């Protein structure tokens, strides 16, 4: 991709590694705000091109996102292009994410693997081996094997790429959009994988991680009340928002509402009061139900059938009631089991 900028000046190496500072191994732009602006222009433009190629509604890579996240972006250039000023060929963005995965036996596993989050090679030079060069560079830099990584909703081209170059063809089915392959669970120490119960005793569930792409889609998805953001039941959406926080960037997390004040409980009341304690216990289980139903509503197949039916008993009744009678329930009733 050509820019009016001097790419060779901005990015001296064939592959530049950028982090939140945008200058990780590119000393030239360190302390030079004018060069940083140009680096940001290149990242933003590449992010937009990648989103377009993947038909995403918004870019998942931009300079501002990179600055607010602990990701690494590998940027490949061709020194000779554009009359010797250099052209940007593509980029690869990776980062660690806490994921809740299912192993081959269907057990819930908590892991924090390195994930491929975005990957793009300019259209006119795809299938020339540049993607492989970028990917191999990243593997060496991170000291990781492709089978131990997770992939954020890989495109058909990327799946074909992984199959061709790394023989990654057999994926282990997940309920989120991250893809992991056979061998992911085998070659890890117990410390890297932790079995987790789906439901915590207090009713506070562990969420399935949202992908970067999910978040873009989530922002536009219409959910029935009480899952509608900005509805009178702001409480519910704010409670549910906690489940978005894992695996997604802080910048995308919706504003938090103190659940105590949102439920109308006076914060000055003594926590030792038995009445308050009963309320607290009940409130916790109500929050758990609402959060479970929110999770349920986010995992429906194209026919509207819940993919988590087996794991979240009772939620389908509650959810279908809300779909049929979206405004008949009070907040208290919404939190009550059907
Ligand atoms: C988690 C994510 O980031 S998902 C998003 C992945 N990015 C995209 O889909 C954006 C559009 N695609 C691209 O930018 C590129 O095709 C990439 C990044 C996937 C691969 O980069 P390339 O430089 O094309 O890969 P490279 O030349 O090293 O390898 C070629 C192999 O990739 C796969 N591939 C590349 N382009 C295509 C294509 N148009 N159709 C099908 N497979 C393709 C094939 O397996 C191909 O091997 P083949 O030519 O023998 O069939």
TrEMBL record:
GO annotation (BP), single: neuron development
Binding site for acetyl-CoA: 119-132, 155-164
Main EC class the enzyme belongs to: transferase
Sorted UniProt keywords: Acyltransferase, Cell junction, Cell projection, Coated pit, Cytoplasm, Cytoskeleton, Membrane, Transferase
Domain called N-acetyltransferase: residue spans: 1-185
GO MF assignments: tubulin N-acetyltransferase activity
Catalytic reaction equation(s): L-lysyl-[alpha-tubulin] + acetyl-CoA = N(6)-acetyl-L-lysyl-[alpha-tubulin] + CoA + H(+)
Enzyme Commission number(s) of this protein: 2.3.1.108
One GO cellular component term noted in the UniProt record for this chain: focal adhesion
Site (Crucial for catalytic activity): 54
Location in the cell: Cytoplasm; Membrane, Clathrin-coated pit; Cell junction, Focal adhesion; Cell projection, Axon
Entry-linked PROSITE patterns: GNAT_ATAT
Domain of life from the UniProt record: Eukaryota
Function: Specifically acetylates 'Lys-40' in alpha-tubulin on the lumenal side of microtubules. Promotes microtubule destabilization and accelerates microtubule dynamics; this activity may be independent of acetylation activity. Acetylates alpha-tubulin with a slow enzymatic rate, due to a catalytic site that is not optimized for acetyl transfer. Enters the microtubule through each end and diffuses quickly throughout the lumen of microtubules.
Homology family: Belongs to the acetyltransferase ATAT1 family.
HAMAP family: mec17
Protein name according to UniProt: Alpha-tubulin N-acetyltransferase 1
Underlying gene: ATAT1
